[in-house]
């Protein structure tokens, strides 16, 4: 292979943010894995010894480094990735500074073995504290094998600063997981002292990676996000609103496949979930933002953890919209006690509609891994096993945890007002614990040689009995009860996979059918009455439903208006007193360029010259809204949405606004007949479960919930 | 502070001022009614700082003083008392009032009168006096067309203009417009133009009298208007800003004139709205050969069709509009017949009573 790495000229080098690259073993792991990714690897193996103090080894099957370049790679600002200053603004690779290898080599003993496809033999290089010790040819497969030993051996101050093995390993595992989530197409493994800690399948599907890292339970509550507008593409997975955490720590963001921290994106997420979560609770998200690299500055943080967007509002807004859309499409029915419902619902919306794995891949994967983590029972067992491990280690914290857990369950009957959240918490609690327990797991993995992936082989029942104390065994049995149908589900899941391969025609039909039936049960509900003149209580076949009358009506009006609009545009109300507005030049241009749109919406807009426009007619639908606000909001929308082709959003917005304004309000009395009519109309709508703004319309309290709440079962 | 009063009169007085009580709870004292015992009578005052109402009622005064009592409690208690003499005795020290009536005894805690805002006294400014029933009719006819769009605050009320001895009052929400003219006996010298807020119009309509003999005195300053009825004074803030010059909007050259029975039209429009309601209340009207046809169609519900006999002059016309707007105008009139004047499919049309009264109601059409 021809010489590829070049030393950046001084100017470029100076433009690059300097800073501490290597703070701790996890930084080394990050830099090495990122190099492997940049080298186009499909398999990356990370081996750690003693929390990285002793050894960090990253083995990849990437393109390797050409023989002539190996030494160069260790020089400061040597990079194959950018050549000129202007390249900095369009960085697609994870590395770009040419700083990592020299920084690592300066503080440790590095051995690199690397071979390109062009070279017939690989080269080995040994560098200690920045000094070249050895260079020779070695026989090896194409790829790079990087070993970093005795980190900070020559900087005792920094060596002293290292934390316990558990902490360092926690950091490593955290960064490993985040990178792995960003690169679902790469099969990655992480081992510690020879024990497997994480392993991702490399199927190029994010949900597979999430499954392998966080387990079945979290995957079951995931919704897919897929949204693109204004050059920003947002994709990934989010948890449905019943699963949440009390911090944003579990929100993972990638910008152009680079893992980043971003309060901006977090805010976008918060807005997306507005009104859906209890106060101070945050969803778990895995979101990937793709945007032309021109619009992102990645060079603002020494470890490249932060990015700057040129139009942050737009990016944030797209995230919000993507999330709203996912929640809407997921057709979530908030329930009093969501656990079982979610499993059911998810088995429809995620597992059934989109198979997680093709059948053959499942087999592959199963055989490739000695212990399946795909299997439901396996996932369950591993959770149980984590409890067991807690218990068997005898950590008192685990006992505490179990007690709180059972208290949660009890408080359902004590504080009925909080019931919904308490119930929800038990879901999120489990997922949360699972995530929080990563640390514990790692600790135990190392102390007890416990392999989290070997959960399936454990007889949790037997272990459960092995520790004494009635209280502690309680949650075990309750956790099992929450997965009553895991086997059946797995079977269904397999069936679905075969279904899926039978061709898409059938699939489409099924989806249609589902859309049509979605609300049919609502027509059969019997309204019992109103509470606070705001909520309709209706009895159904199984328990009862609570509906928010305003959003019920809003949904009905929305679909009616949408229909009118599609067929003949909105009627236009001529104004007796025209509205005169002073606008900016940009706004006026936007109006002129979109005059046809304004016509269709029912506006008659006239440019009066200068900065003045006169509105002579407005959409003549519903009285009592400020025409001026509506008009300006639409202008704003047009300005934001450069995608002139996509007007659907705009119409939708307008119609949402109109329907909301016209809907019956909270606090209005409804007669029985009116309630029946509302429910019937609602049942015919396309999405009777969420209002056009994405808020839930109804929730369900089943007979079972009632029995449970009153402790009859 | 102590007085005796009939339950009925006391309750009536409370009701008169209660509408001015503030329902925002930013200033708690404004949720109360000031009761001031004067030499021979009682003065009740309430205000939300936008509007203030004062009302004098007769009472047997035992000792003077003033106290503010929470309006809703006071009103609820007095309403439920038997129709007998009520004795109210206030402990100004403790700011509480003892209410005695028959076998009932209540104590209500209040606020010190010192903290209650004093309603401004308008001494100078323009004076004007108008016959009460006439002014009541004008206010009622005009207030139906006001706007509540907060982005156009100057439309959230009615424009009152007085030039010589002619009074003109108008309002619009841009979709429809109401305009009334009347001759008043005592004119004024200068030109006067003020915008009276919606809420004040409502209170006027409620408090003005039908008694032919009664007059209302109006007093104006730059930003306030005061209405003096016999025992009631209403003082209100005026809306600032310029009301649009709406008179050119009233079509001058109509080419279709029809006359028909008001009640029949009202009922026909109401019936058609039953279907139109699902269609944002749009009704289509066709005027041809002595007939007026009202129609509405909704693909799901069905359709409505009404025919009315009319006296007709000029060409035929077809026009669509919001039924609600026409209904408002028809409801406020009390003549047997009304006149409608059309100037084409896309132009506003006029509704008028057929008697002398100079009232014009304009509805803007819908284009669909
Ligand atoms: N695993 C690898 N496979 C192939 N080439 C590699 C690998 N690791 C490093 N290199 C080569 O070595 C060069 C230097 O790596 P280094 O990490 O120091 O810099 P960089 O990745 O370009 O930038 P940064 O400092 O931002 O990481 C890279 O540009 C690349 O050409
Ligand atoms: Mg690098």
Q: What does this molecule look like?
A:
- The complex is a heterodimer of chains A (713) and B (368).
- Chain A has 713 residues and is of the alpha+beta class.
- Helices cover 45% and strands 19% of the residues of chain A.
- In chain A, helix 8 runs parallel beside helix 9 (312-330) and helix 13 runs antiparallel to helix 14.
- Chain B is an alpha+beta fold and 368 residues long.
- Chain B is built from 6 helices and 28 strands.
- A 9-stranded antiparallel sheet of chain B has the order 10-6-2-3-4-18-17-16-11. In chain B, strands 15-12-13-14-27-26-25-19-23 form a 9-stranded antiparallel sheet.
- In chain B, helix 1 packs antiparallel against helix 2, helix 3 (132-143) crosses helix 4 (198-207) and helix 5 (262-276) runs antiparallel to helix 6 (323-332).
- The interface between A and B is medium-sized, with 24 and 30 residues.
- Strand 21 of chain A pairs antiparallel with strand 28 of chain B.
- The complex binds adenosine-5'-triphosphate (ATP) and magnesium ion.
**Most residues in contact, chain pair and counts:** A-B, 24 and 30 residues
Computed Rg of chain B: 25 Å
CATH class group of the largest domain in chain B: Alpha Beta
Q: Tell me the structural class of chain B.
A: alpha+beta
Strand content of chain B: 35-45%
Oligomer: heterodimer
What count of domains describes the coordinates of chain B?
3
What small molecules are bound in this structure?
Answer: adenosine-5'-triphosphate, magnesium ion
- The low-confidence runs of chain A, each spanning 5 or more residues with pLDDT under 50, are 8-19, 333-516
Summary tags:
heterodimer; A: 713 residues; alpha+beta; Heat Shock Protein 90; Ribosomal Protein S5, domain 2; 4 domains; eight-stranded mixed beta sheet; five-stranded mixed beta sheet; 26 helices; 24 strands; elongated; B: 368 residues; DNA Polymerase III, Chain A, domain 2; 3 domains; nine-stranded antiparallel beta sheet; binds adenosine-5'-triphosphate; binds magnesium ion
């Amino acid at each position: 292979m021809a010489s590829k790495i070049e030393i950046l000229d001084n100017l470029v080098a100076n433009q690059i943010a300097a800073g501490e690259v290597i703070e701790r073993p996890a930084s080394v792991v990050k830099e090495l894995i990122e190099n492997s990714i940049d080298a186009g690897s499909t398999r990356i193996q990370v081996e750690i010894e003693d929390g990285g103090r002793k050894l960090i080894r990253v083995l990849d099957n990437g393109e390797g480094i050409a023989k002539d370049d190996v030494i160069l790679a260790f020089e400061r600002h040597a990079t194959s990735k950018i050549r000129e200053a202007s390249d900095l603004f369009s960085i697609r690779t994870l590395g770009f500074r040419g700083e990592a290898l020299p920084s690592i080599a300066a503080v440790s003993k590095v051995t690199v073995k690397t071979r390109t496809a062009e070279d017939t033999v690989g080269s080995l290089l040994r560098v200690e504290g920045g000094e070249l010790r050895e260079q020779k040819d070695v026989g090896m497969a194409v790829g790079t094998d990087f070993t970093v030993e005795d980190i900070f051996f020559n900087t005792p101050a920094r060596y002293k600063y290292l934390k316990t093995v558990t902490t360092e390993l926690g950091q490593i595992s955290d960064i490993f997981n985040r990178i792995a989530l960003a690169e679902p197409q790469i099969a990655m493994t992480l081992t510690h002292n020879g024990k497997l800690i994480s392993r991702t399948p490399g199927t190029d599907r994010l949900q597979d990676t999430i499954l392998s890292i966080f387990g079945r339970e979290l995957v079951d509550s995931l919704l897919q996000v897929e949204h693109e507008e204004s050059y920003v593409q947002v994709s990934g997975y989010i948890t449905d609103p019943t699963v949440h955490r009390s911090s944003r720590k579990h929100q993972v963001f990638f910008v152009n496949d680079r893992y980043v921290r971003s309060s901006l994106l977090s805010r976008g997420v918060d807005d997306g979930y507005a009104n859906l979560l209890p106060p101070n609770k945050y969803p778990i998200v895995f979101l990937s933002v793709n945007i032309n690299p021109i619009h992102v500055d990645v060079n603002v943080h020494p470890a490249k953890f932060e990015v700057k967007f040129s139009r942050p509002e737009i990016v944030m807004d797209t995230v919000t919209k993507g999330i709203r859309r996912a929640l809407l499409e997921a057709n979530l029915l908030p329930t009093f006690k969501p656990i079982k419902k979610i499993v059911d619902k998810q088995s429809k919306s995620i597992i059934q509609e989109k198979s997680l794995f093709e059948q053959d891949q499942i087999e592959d994967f199963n055989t490739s891994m000695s212990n399946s983590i795909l299997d439901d029972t396996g996932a369950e067992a591993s959770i149980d096993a984590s409890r067991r491990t807690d218990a068997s280690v005898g950590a008192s914290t685990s006992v505490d945890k179990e007690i709180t857990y059972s208290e949660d369950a009890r408080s359902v009957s004590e504080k009925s007002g909080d019931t919904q959240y308490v119930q929800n918490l038990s879901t999120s609690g489990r997922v949360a614990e699972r995530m929080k327990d990563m640390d514990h797991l790692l600790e135990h993995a190392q102390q007890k040689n416990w392999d989290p992936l070997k959960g399936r082989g454990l007889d949790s029942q037997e272990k459960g009995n092995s520790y004494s104390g009635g209280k502690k065994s309680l949650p075990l049995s309750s956790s099992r009860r929450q997965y009553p149908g895991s086997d059946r589900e797995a079977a269904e899941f397999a069936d679905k996979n075969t279904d899926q391969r039978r061709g898409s025609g059938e699939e489409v039909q099924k989806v249609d059918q589902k859309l049509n039936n979605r609300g049919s049960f609502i027509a059969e509900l019997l309204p019992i009455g109103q509470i606070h003149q705001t909520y309709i209580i209706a009895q159904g076949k199984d328990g009862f439903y609570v509906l928010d009358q305003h959003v019920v009506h809003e949904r009905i009006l929305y679909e009616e208006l949408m229909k009118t609009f599609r067929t003949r545009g909105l009627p236009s109300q001529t104004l007796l007193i025209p509205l005169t507005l002073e606008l900016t030049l940009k706004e006026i241009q936007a109006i002129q360029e979109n005059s046809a749109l304004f016509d269709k919406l029912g506006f008659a807009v006239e440019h009066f010259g200068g900065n003045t426009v006169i509105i002579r007619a407005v959409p003549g639908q519903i009285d009592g809204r400020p025409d001026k606000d509506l008009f300006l909001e639409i202008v704003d929308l047009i300005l934001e949405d450069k995608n002139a082709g996509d007007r659907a959003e705009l119409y939708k917005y307008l119609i949402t606004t109109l329907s909301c304004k016209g809907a019956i309000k909270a606090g209005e009395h409804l007669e029985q007949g009116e309630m029946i009519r509302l429910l019937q109309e609602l049942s015919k709508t396309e999405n009777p479960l969420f209002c056009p703004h994405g808020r839930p319309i109804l929730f369900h309290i089943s007979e079972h919930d009632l029995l449970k709440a009153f402790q009859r079962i | 502070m102590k007085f005796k009063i009939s339950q009925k009169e006391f309750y009536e007085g409370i009701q008169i001022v209660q509408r001015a009580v503030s329902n925002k709870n930013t200033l708690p004292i404004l949720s109360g009614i000031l009761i001031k015992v004067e030499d021979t009578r009682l003065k009740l005052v309430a205000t939300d700082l936008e509007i203030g109402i004062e009302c004098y009622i007769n009472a047997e005064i035992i000792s003077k003083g003033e106290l503010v009592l929470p309006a809703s409690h006071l009103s609820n208690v007095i309403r439920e008392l038997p129709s007998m003499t009520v004795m109210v005795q206030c402990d100004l020290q403790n700011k509480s009032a003892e209410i005695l009536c028959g076998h009932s005894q209540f104590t209500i805690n209040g606020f010190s009168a010192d903290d209650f805002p004093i309603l401004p006294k308008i001494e100078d400014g323009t004076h004007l006096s108008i016959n009460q029933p006439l002014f009541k009719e004008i206010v009622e006819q005009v207030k139906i067309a006001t706007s509540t769009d907060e982005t156009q605050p100057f439309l959230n009320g009615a424009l009152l203009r007085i030039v010589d001895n002619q009074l003109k009052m108008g309002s619009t929400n841009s979709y429809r417009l109401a305009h009334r003219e009347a001759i008043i006996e005592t004119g004024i010298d200068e030109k006067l133009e003020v915008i009276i807020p919606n809420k004040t119009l409502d209170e006027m309509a409620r408090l003005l009298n039908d008694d032919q003999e009664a007059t209302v005195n109006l007093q104006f300053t730059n930003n306030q208007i005061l209405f003096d009825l016999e025992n009631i004074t209403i003082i209100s803030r005026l809306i600032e800003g310029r009301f649009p010059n709406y008179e050119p909007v009233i079509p001058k050259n109509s080419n279709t004139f029809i006359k028909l029975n008001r009640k029949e039209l009202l009922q026909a429009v109401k019936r058609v709205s039953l279907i139109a309601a699902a269609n944002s209340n749009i009704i289509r009207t066709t005027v041809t050969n002595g007939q007026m046809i009202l129609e509405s169609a909704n693909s799901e519900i069905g359709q409505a069709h009404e025919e009315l006999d009319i006296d007709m002059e000029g060409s035929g016309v077809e026009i669509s509009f919001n039924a609600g707007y026409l209904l408002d105008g028809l409801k406020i009139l009390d003549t047997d017949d009304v006149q409608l004047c059309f100037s084409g499919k896309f132009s506003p049309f006029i509704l008028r009573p057929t008697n002398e009264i100079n009232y014009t109601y304009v509805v803007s059409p819908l284009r669909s």
